[in-house]
Amino acid sequence: MKAIIVGAGEVGFHIAKRLASENKDVVVIDRNPAVLQRILEHMDVQVLEGSGCSPLVLGEAGITKADMLLAVTDSDEINLMACTFANMLAPGLTKLARIRNDEYTAYGQQLAKGIGIGIIINPEVEVVRTIEHMLRAPGAVDICDLADGRIKIVGTWITSGNPMAGTSLVDLRRKAGDMQLIVAAIVRDDKVIVPTGSDEILEGDLVYFVCEDSQLQSVFSFLGNRSGKKSSVLIIGGGNIGLRLARALEKKPIHVKLMDKDPERCAVLAGELDRTVVLVGDGTDQEALLEENIGAMDVAVTMTGNEESNILASLLAKKLGTPMAITRLNKIEYMPLVRAIGLEHIVSPRLSAVNSIFKHVRKGGVLSAVAIKDGAEALEALVGPESDLVGRALKDLTFPKGVLVLCIMRADTVLIPSGFDVIQRGDRLFILSLTESIPGVERMLSRGQEQG
Amino acid sequence: MRWTIALHVTGLILLCVGLCMFLPLACGWYYDDNSVAPLFLSLCVTVLAGAFLMFSFKRPKPLVINHREGMVIVSLGWAACAFFGALPFVLGGFPSFTDAFFESVSGFTTTGASILTNIEALPKGLLFWRSLTHWLGGMGIIVLTIAILPFLGVGGMQLYKAEVPGPVADKLQPRIKDTAMSLWKVYVFFTVAQVVLLMFGGMNLFESICHAFGTMATGGFSTRNTSIAAYDSAYIDGVITFFMLVAGVNFALHFQLFRGRPLTVWRDPEFRFFAILVLVLTAVVTFSIQSSSYSSWPEALRFGSFQVASILTTTGYATADYELWLPLPQGVLLLCMFIGGCAGSTAGGIKCMRVMLLFKHSYRELFRLVHPRAVLPLKFGPKLVKEEVLTSIWGFFVLFIVLFVLSALALAAMGVDVLTSFAAVVACIGNIGPGLGEVGPVDNYAAIPTLGKWVLSFCMLLGRLEIYTVLVLFMPEFWRK
Questions:
Q1: Is B431 annotated as a binding residue?
Q2: Do B157 and A26 touch (CB under 8 A)?
Q3: What is the DSSP letter of A200?
Q4: What pLDDT is stored for residue B192 in this prediction?
Q5: How far apart, in whole angstroms, are the C-alpha atoms of residue B227 and residue B101?
Q6: Model's pTM, two decimal places?
Q7: Are B39 and B28 in contact (CB under 8 A)?
Q8: Membrane-crossing residues (chain B) (predicted)?
């Protein structure tokens, strides 16, 4: 498969890296030679200096032979332009644009008809949704939807003193009883482990599990995580995401305050929002935070456009007594560091853009794909009527190494599979796979379907 | 700098090269000459050494090679190949290890400088190995390794950059493995084409293959004492001239040609420069040798163009003793020795691209004296040349000249006459082969003192790996933790 990526920013970088690690042919286009140089040093892809919305450059990148165009620059207009020209040069191509402005996303159908953009990604919507999840399940540091939100994949830290530390997965299953709790992966020392029954959960692990949405709360209390109602939230930074989040939260019984440095922006925000209290102030200013009695707030969410300010504001809020701080962070390299200084809840619009793009890149009926750290992915795949998998028991299938079938959703029930379960048409399979095995899984899933 | 990776990958490279010794072994076995035992023994030793390095130093997963390690691996890999490549010669009865090593380095670096006084006395298996070292070294043993081994990935790019000739290394395909593969396919295609054409001219299969190896790699080892002159055929001269020129052009352009984009080739500024250079220099040489050395125009053209192509592309085949020509054509050939072929070709020398940019840059400085306020970007075709590329080219040029002078002085200090020492050094550092004086087209390097042969071997390696890659290893800063 050949993919052309327009934009070598943080989003483009990580998509390129993941595609290249799966041995796909990748061409990255960007105007800035310095970021292209960085890409060349990290991965085996081809780079092209030039504007991604120039038809000449797209032609040079081999657009007519490509399977997919991913327009992921920071500018909506460049992304749209790139897709427009790609549509003229290679009409059949799958085109995907990262678009943030609501005024464009509202016209998704027209864009699809007009210039053939198949998929539009708005990472800000995803980020707001993730934050809402985190507020519901504060123990989770990573939480993503599968099966349209009916099933959740959740990452949670096993802190010291957690009753589950030292339990093997077999025992965990026994203790859980009726509760359907599937441990999907364990991240230990930054490495992803695909667990077997005999693996133990240890202190300091990041455990990813899969459960039904309705059982989320009981699973959390079972895992010994505190949970409580969050009734007051302070949002620092009134940019696009901050506004979107405030708008979503004020519909719930939550008391929302939104703080921004810029008085003019605050005036706009106050006009847009109803119940939210809009404040002018700097989130890294201790006085301003104390004035608003930050210690009594349940959650501080730092959403400014500046990484370092966000980290500082979150640390400050925690020091002043806020139990939970959610930090927006774009630089993916910072992520291991912030955990070390005590910030657990991180959201990254760029990373969620990467994730939501990925589910469209996957073949073989894959409906969604969630990255777990850098080493693995949880996939949701629909078994089509023509698939070779239909009618075969799980134990008869030879999956590549490092692959685990987590559960099967049939009609509306979730099954925890044993080796004797037979796959039926219309099943949704939830599979965990290490990154290197993903091409093998894709091949298995798409076998039979392509001919049919 | 992690030695485990460096030694592991060096082991892999040795393994590849060791397995290549099967070809001359088969050849020696077919002709049933006394090269079978030395080749078989060398094959075993090389493969075992490679396997030993590979298995005693495990590679980490994933295999990530940084640029420092890349340079160490490439230099180490080439030195190791030259060392083990010398084994068949040592066992095959070369006078000394120095001579065998010199011959092997000369082969792998596609220089073509030989210490043999009677080439035809060598068994066919060894002659084949001599030519095969050219062919392997021409497109690059590292590029070969990358093409064969899929897991080199990102690390492969670091190795590729350290080996590929020219100031900038571009990928032809999204993945480095495919890039290496494409280059080798083009290379193999031209080699096969040349073998077929040479056989039409009456050369036998064995000699056709050996000469095609020597031509496409711009090497210059022949199987005959008198090089190509032994055949005395205008057809063969013509075929070899053509393929030498082909090998002197950037292989990325050949690749574009095969993709059906002939215009890219013609629009390439370096190709135009190279083409014009060949035409002008051939014309000058033909005119000046016509009256003095040859009786007719076609004959002067035949020998003139052959010599110009041979020296400019740094091949070093000979059909005439140019030392008997007038001073002007000899001077032109000396100029050719410095210029060399195009970047990204198998040729050596300073390379047309660098020469062009050096001239453009110098012209720009003159222009600036007239218009001090002018904004003067440097363009290569439609593309802007980055200042850092330019600085690196000036650095290369200065190092080239400094190394040339120092090595020549070193040779002179050993008692070699001045003309010979200067010509021998430029012929080795430019990977050409024949020089002037005692090392002219009809002479050989046997008479150079032992220490001098080591200096020249080092020069050949420096020239093939474009100086920087090797020289940087001698900086204390490189090894500091």
A1: yes
A2: no
A3: B
A4: 96
A5: 21
A6: 0.80
A7: yes
A8: 12-31, 37-57, 69-91, 132-152, 186-206, 234-253, 273-291, 331-350, 393-416, 454-475
User: Which residues from B are below 8 Å from A40, CB to CB?
Assistant: 157
Query: Please, how many CA atoms are within 13 Å of residue A365, restricted to the half-sphere of its CB?
Result: 26
Q: Looking at residue B458, what is its pLDDT?
A: 95
Q: Which amino acid is at B436?
A: L
Residue B172: closest C-alpha in chain A = A46
Range with lowest mean pLDDT among A115-119, A434-438, B289-293, B318-322 = A115-119
DSSP string, A393-446: BGGG--PPTTEEEEEEEETTEEE---TT-B--TT-EEEEEEEGGGHHHHHHHHH
CA distance B477 to B481: 9
The sign of the dihedral angle between the CA atoms of B123, B125, B128, B132 is negative
Write out chain B residues lying below 8 Å of A41, CB-based. 67, 154
**Does position A128 have pLDDT exceeding 70, yes or no?**
yes
Assess whether pLDDT exceeds 90 at residue B479: no
CB-nearest to A45 from B67, B156, B174 is B174
Which contiguous run of DSSP H or E holds residue A258? strand A255-260
CA distance A377 to chain B (A): 18
Out of B153, B154, B174, name the one closest to residue A46 (CB). B174
Average pLDDT over residues A227-243: 85
Interface contacts A/B by beta carbons within 8 Å: 32
Residue A450: per-residue pLDDT: 46
Q: State whether A33 and B386 contact (CB < 8 Å).
A: yes
B404 against A60, higher pLDDT: B404
The per-type count for chain A, helices as H runs and strands as E runs, is 16, 22
B175 and A27 within 8 Å at the Cβ level: the answer is no
> Considering chain B, what percentage of its residues have pLDDT values greater than 90?
60
Query: Of B132, B127, B85, which is closest to residue B105 (Cα–Cα)?
Result: B85
Cα distance between residue A26 and residue A16, in whole Å: 7
Q: Using CA atoms, how far apart are residues A153 and A407, in angstroms rounded to an integer? A: 12
Picking from A23, A33, A40, the nearest residue to B157 by CB comes out as A40
B350-366 tens-digit pLDDT? 999 999 999 999 999 99
pLDDT at A225: 64
Q: What mean pLDDT comes out for the span B91-99?
A: 90
Confirm or deny that B111 is annotated as ligand binding. yes
Give the pLDDT score at B153. Answer: 64
Please judge whether B153 and A44 are an interchain contact, meaning their C-beta atoms are less than 8 angstroms apart. Answer: yes
Residues of chain A with Cβ-Cβ distance to B386 below 8 Å are: 33
**With an 8 Å Cβ cutoff, are A44 and B178 in contact?**
no
> What average pLDDT score do residues A304-315 get?
90
Task: Identify the CA nearest to A71 among candidates A91, A59, A85.
Answer: A85
Q: What is the pLDDT of residue A451?
A: 40
- Pick the range with the lowest mean pLDDT from A209-213, B86-90, B123-127: A209-213
- ipTM, 2 dp: 0.71
CA–CA gap between residue B169 and residue B183 (Å, rounded): 13
Q: Taking CA atoms, what residue in B is nearest to A29?
A: B174
Say if the Cβ atoms of B174 and A27 lie within 8 Å: yes
**Partner residues linked to A78 by β-bridges:** none
CB proximity A415 to B under 8 Å: no
The chain-wide mean pLDDT, for chain A, equals 84
Instruction: Pick the closest to residue B161 from B68, B86, B89 (CA basis).
Output: B68
A53 DSSP 8-state letter? T
Residue of A nearest to B173 (CA): A46
Which residues 119-178 in chain A show a CB within 8 A of chain B? Answer: none
Encode burial over B20-31: b for 16+ CB neighbours within 10 A, e otherwise: bbebbbebbeee
Report the alpha-carbon distance of residue B344 to residue B186 in Å, rounded.
13
Question: In this structure, what DSSP letter does residue B439 have?
Answer: G
Residue with tokens 């020549």: B408
